[in-house]
Each structure stands twice: as structure tokens, then as C-alpha cells.
Amino acid sequence: MRVMHVALGGCLKAPPVSYGLTEDTGGHIAYVLAAARAQAARGAEVAVVTRRFADHGHAYTAQDEPFVPGARILRLDDGDPRYLAKEALEQRLPMLAGAFEAMLDREGAPDVIHAHFADAAAVVRKAAAARGIPVIYTAHSLGIDKREAIGEAGPVLERRIAQEDAAMASAAAIVASSRDECERQLMLYPSAREGIIHRVVPGIAPVADADPGRAAALVAPFLRDPSRPPVLAIARPVAKKNLPALVEMFATDERLRKGANLVIVAGLRDGLDTGPEEQVDVYRALLAAVDRHDLWGRVALPKRHEPADVPALYAWAAERRGVFANPALTEPFGLTLLEAAAAGLPVVATDRGGPRDIIGALGHGTCHDPEDVAGFAARIAGLLDDPASWDAAAAAARHNRIRWSWDRYAADHAALCEGLLTPHAVPARPRHLLVSDVDGTLTGDRAAAARFAGWRAGNGDWGFAVATGRSLTESRAVLRRWALPEPDAFITAVGSEIHLRAEDGRLIPDEAFARHLDDGWDRSSLLAALGGVPGLTPQDPVEQRARKLSWFGDAAAARAARTALDDAGLRARIVHSHGNLIDVLPPNGGKARAMRWLGRRLGVPQRAILAAGDSGNDADMLSAAHRAVIVGNASEELAHLAPRRGLHRAQAYHADGVLEGIDALSRGLPVPSIRAGTAANTPSGATVVRDDGARIAAR
């Protein structure tokens, strides 16, 4: 497969990269180069396309630069030899589009183009459309979120937002790294379509030859007592990174001021008055805060650093039992948190955006509101002061970082590209329909998942849908991770959303089902009625949907919620599952009603629908289906379902249990002999692990 990445901004070249050399030379370059390297290692032919200029050295003038075997960097010449920042670059986009067309004529067309930032999407749009090349778009940073986070407005930002919306409108797929990007940030745009948004998680680059001594030498001239544990921040000098606030946090917390040092590496600067206006403002604010609080000797703000200094700083901070801090007002993802994890360095990060995903999966720190200066500082001090907490966070980083792999990113990206090149066939009216839960039902045993994929490929008379508590983007990510086939339809968010296939194979929301759920659904009144119920703790904002409200709580809390709604005269369904998850749904919602609706949509009689599940949020679907399979690893939450004709309790676990049930219920045969992944051949006392790749509650 030929993959072409296009990233125009910043000083992009083969490593080592001078991050911070300009305002636009940031984490997106690390992302693009790591992705290209991993894709080439898997056999793809990869080109990284960027802009050619003469400033900052000869490295940026080569039109064809070798990178790694299978990957190279190509540069577009737009006729202007100067380096151009983002705003100035906008004026050169027509010339770059022409140069890009000429490059495709010369080099040949790739199978897929991956555009990074909206300017790249604008440059490739015409040429890609003319040649029928699907375009993947990754925003990396979004204007609407920036506008809301820092209150910035003006014609430049509004043009950027319009450009981002146009990129979403023309993209065949949108790739983002975090749930917050996929489900909140992107969905603020009119042209965003949930059915083309995919979460593909980047990797953690291994730390090679990091020398803590380099970092010690870099910061020593600034610090009176370099032996103190450091609070380390590495970020571009832009307003949304909120670096001056970190100085305030450090200065106003007595434990930090007396017992730690603050090290802020904010790009490369020649002086206070050089560079873009935003960068100059940040540097002045940083130095003013240091001076105002008389922190000289406790704060290091190096003007320059080499690429090798960055991994050295992480290693040095970990060696001295420090903490990495990211107080950004908004953070689309947070690659620096992965870099900290690679060094085993605990973190405290903003609770706005991607860090919730990263820290939730890695467990190497905590998130907090960046505008709560005292609270954020207290979280940092708490890690520094508590050796047990610091050790636990560092150990979690070292243990869990292997889950974040660029090789897995490349595999997921390849699967996405294959899907774009061979779209999902729109099924003819199927004779049967399988509606299956995902977590623990189809996942949990990779060999069984592969057998299920083989069954699916060989049984075209069966329609296939999944019914899950997850969102659409998370469901697709899990299916990719387990090499499971994409279904014909998705029932998501515990039966409160349905996505169907359009004629071209794209997923589109079932708006008629949404209107059906709106009947009797009073979201604001439900929130008010449940706000004071003892034992209910709201789940993260990303779990709250238009037609689903979610809390943590035990069975007693679920009963109390039911009582509160009855007392308030409010209609809603309450689903308690997995021991501590409580979902409140519209009266017409839930997996069972969604399953019946989907059957009618696809023209499948209710008697020809087979449901499969493993937990409490599958109970209504399993009870309602004429034929139902409870897999062998099911939770005790389904023990109450009485035996009946058409209900099969499988002995096999996970996807093998689904296949066992299909055999038994479709053919009317006795229960098949137990195969791989069953209770019979699981060693006594062994634990069946749901390896879903993330430390979050399975749904």
C-alpha cells in the first residue's frame, strides 16, 4: 500500500528534529514521522510531503530526503524561499496545491492521502478528488476548542475554523487520538459526521540513550539547589498551554516553593522581542511571573536546547523523583504525557481533552482543572510528598506503556485504509440477523475472535450488528483491535443510538430512531431529579450522550435512582450493569427496543433475530430475542434469566460461545462439544482476562 502524509507547517525533516525552533514545530511532526516509520516497517511505501524553504538551514531545501527504508520526505516548492508561519502560509495554499498536483503527476498517485491540519487538506483536495484518492484528515488542534478555552476570537481564527469544517466535509475519514477529540471537539463542527471519525491511538516512542547528565547540565546554571525534585513542563510557547499559570501554581504552594524546582522548556528563543506575537507574550508573562514571586534560583527557563535534551529531561526528572506537569487550558491529545510515561515519570495534567484518556489508560498520574491554581498545585505536591503514590504512578507508566505501540497504530491505520479502498458492502435483505454485544462477548479470546471473523466471512445470509454500551468510535476501535469484522449496523450507547450503512457503505445515524427516542425523554429534568441521589457519581462527560445519562453506582444506588424518578413523575429506563455502571435511557431506548427497530429496518422477521451477550446491560435484549445466547463467561447479572425455549447458555467462552449458540439455535442441535476457550479447558482457578487494551470499564 502507498500512503502519503501531508504536513505543511513547521520545520519537518528527518530526525533529529529541532522541536520548538518555530511556533509550529511541535508534536504533530513527531506524530507524522513516527507513524511513517511504523508504516514503512510493516511494508507500506510511505511519503511524507511538506513545504520547501531555505530559512533555518539547508536541511529544509532538499526536494527528496531519505528517511528510513520504505519512507522518504518530499518537499513542495511554492516559489517563496522563506519559512512561513501558519497565518502567512495560508496565502501560499493555491501555489502549494499546484505543486502538489505536479508532484502526483511525477511520483504517481498513492492509495491513500493523510492530511495533517486543515491547510494540508485544502492543498490536496482537488488533486485527490480528481484521481479518486481517499483522504484521511487529522486536525491535531482545533480552532473551536481554542476559541472556547482561551476566549480568542477574530477573523484569523474564524477562517481557520471554516477551513477545518471544509476539511471534515471532504474527508473520507477523520482520525483522532482521544475520545474527547472524537466525541466532543470534532462534533462541534457542522460538517463533522460521527460515522467517518475513527480513534487510532498513537504509540510511545522508546527512550534510547537518554542521558540525565545532559539535562542536569542544561538546568544547573539556573538553580541554586539542583538536587530538589523538579516540576517539569515541556510545551510550545502558546497561550493555550497556560505556562504562566504553572509559575503561579509553583509560587503559591508552600510545599513546591520550599521543596522543589520548576523547569519549563518552552521552545527555542533568541530574545524576548523576537518571534510571533503570541510567543513573545508568553515569554514575557513567564519571566514577569518569576520576577514577581522572586523565584530566581528555583526556576529554569532555558533559551535553547538540543533534540537529545528532551528525552534526557524526562529521564533526569524521573531519576530525581519529579513530576511532569501539563496545565493546558485545552489539550487535544497530549503526546508529552506519553513521553513522560516512556521515562517512568509521573504526571499531573489538565482535565480538558485527551489527557483523561491517556492517564486513564496508563495510570501514571492524575488530571485536574487547570484553572484551579491551588488544586492543581496540590496534586503536584501530593505526588512529590508521597513516596508510595509516586512509586505507584511510575510503576504504572513502566507497566502500561507497552499498550501504546506505533506498530499497533500502523496496523489500525492499515485496516482503516483497507476499509476506505474496499467499502463495506451494503447487505441484501438478510435471512437472519445476529445482534451481539462486544466486550466480553466477541472479545476476550483472540483465537475465538478469529474463528468468528471466519464464520462471518462465510455466512452471507446472516446480517450482523453489534449492540454495546460504548460510543460508535470506541466500538469501532475495539473491533479493529480484535481484528473483528465491521458490522452492517451499530447499536451503541446502550441502545440509545443506531448507525446504518448508506448505499456507499458509509455509516449514517438513524435519525428516525433518534426522533422515536425523543418521545418522553426530558434530559434536563432527569439530571435535576438524579443530582442528589446518594451513591450516584457521574461518569466522565464524554460518557454523557444526547439520549443517555451515565453514573457509577451499585445496585442500591440504581434502586434509589428508580425511586427518585418515580417520585418526580419522570419516565426513563435504568440499566445497572458490570456491578457499578448505571445508565439512564429514554422510555423507548435500550438494546431490546433498538434490536427490534433494526430488524424492522433491515426487513428481518423478529423470529429470525439472534442476540448474544454477557452482562446486565444485555438482559433486556436477551429476554426479548426469540433466540438468545448467553456466553459461558457471562456475569452473575444474567443468572436470573429463566430457562426458556430459544435461550441457550453456552459452555464456550466469548466469541466461541456465540458460535456455539448459533450452531445450537440455528440447527436445533444439541449443545456442541466444548471447544477452545471454554470452561472445560480453562485451568481450575484461572482468570479469563478481557484484554481490551484500556483500563476502562467494559460495556
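Above is the first protein from milestone M3; the second protein from the same milestone is given next.
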Amino acid sequence: MHAPRVVVITGASGGLGQALTRLHLEKGDLVIAATRKPVTHESTVFAPDPNRFFSYTVNVGNNEDVRRFAAWVHVRFGRCDILYNNAGIAVFETLIGMDIDELEETLRTNIAGVMYTTRAFLPMMLDHGSGHIVNIASLAGQVATAKASVYAASKAAVIRFSEGLQHELAGSGVRVTCAMPGPIDTPFLEKADRTGAYRSKVARYLLTADETARHIYKAVQSNRSEVAMPYRLKMLSVLYGLLPARLKKLVAPLLNRK
């Protein structure tokens, strides 16, 4: 009988992170749910087997905090087989309209947090000659729109970071998958969209957290370097990227739904 895989998931208190947690527990893995705030009622909410679910409170935007977390995982479990860099925040607002503290927290969490966590857990994977890093970006990183300039920039950074990391880790046994979902129907969307209008405008494209988790899980199992969903938005982003600058200016108003 094989030992369960050790899976670390940041941003696991709700939405996609919680869906990934449930899915991996269903698959028999041992999951460490990293959250900004303490998780309560772990065994009843997440798993019937408390020996396969653990939680840890960490601020991924704080490098020392992340290093302590990785050290705890190393001492307690000895390895990390899959790392999901899922923690992220968004504020749909213009650059001028966004509070500077919100701007800095977005960059700290969405960019530095991904790099801090990867850097802290990567040595464990390299020592074992295997592992999988899954960076949760967004289709917003492919196509930026009004009121998402900061968020889109942060997710574009995650996409390029993932690409560079794939080259750095070639031949090491450690794989990297970059996931680029479209809008997901979770509390994350409610917090990001203060007006409440965005949800209704993209209702037909909304993904559920569970279906997004399944798409990503399948990509990880297949060792894919990237995965994007839903299909229609994925194709729209590809086509948009092929347009010349002049046509992009004409199309841009159709994309601004925030």
C-alpha cells in the first residue's frame, strides 16, 4: 500500500482552495490547508479522517512566515509532493481608485506570495527528485481589462514565473503547472467586485469551484504545463492575443465588464 501524497494548498479556507482540498482528500491524499485565518471544525468540514487533514495559519506575503510553514511541513511530514499556490486577492478598481494598501497587498499576495512559497518548498521536492508545483493564475493574466489592471498584472506575473520555472526545473523531476481559470462563482468574486455588477455580466461564463478543481486536478495528473478554462473564454483570449493593436482598441470596450 502506497503512502498518501502530501499536498499543500494555500488559500484553502474557501472557494477553489476548499474545493481542491475536498478533491484531494477524496483521492486519499494527505492535505495541509494553509489559510490566512485559523480553520475551525476541520475534521467535520473537510475530512472524516483527521489523520489526513491538517491546517496551518500563514500569511504567504510574509517570507519569514512562509519559511516557518515549510519548516513545519518538513519536520512533520518529511516531504511535499504537490504544492498549490492558490492564495490570492483581487480588487476590481481603477489604478487611481484603488487604495495604496490594497494595491501593495495584491502584489505581495499574488506575486511575492507565490514566489516565497515556491522557494520555501522547492528544496524538499528537489531532495526527493520529484514533486509538482501548481500555480493558480487567471485568464485575466492573458487579457487585461479596465478595473483589473493591477490584478491582471499580478496574474500575468504568475504565468511568466511559471514558464520560467518550468525551464529552470527541466530534468529535475519537479513539474510545474500553471492554471488559468476564468471567473469562478465564489466569495472571492464578491469581495473583488464591490458593485455587484460583474457577476451578472459574466454569468454565462462562471465556473463552479468544484468543476475548476476537477479541471486543474486532471491537468496535474496528466503533467500538463498549463490549463485554461472555460473553453470559450480560453479561445477568446487566444484570439485576442493574435489581434493587431489597432483592432484590440476596437474590441476592448466589449471586454470591459467590471
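Note on the second protein: Strands lie at 6-10, 30-35, 53-57, 82-85, 131-136, 174-181, 226-229.
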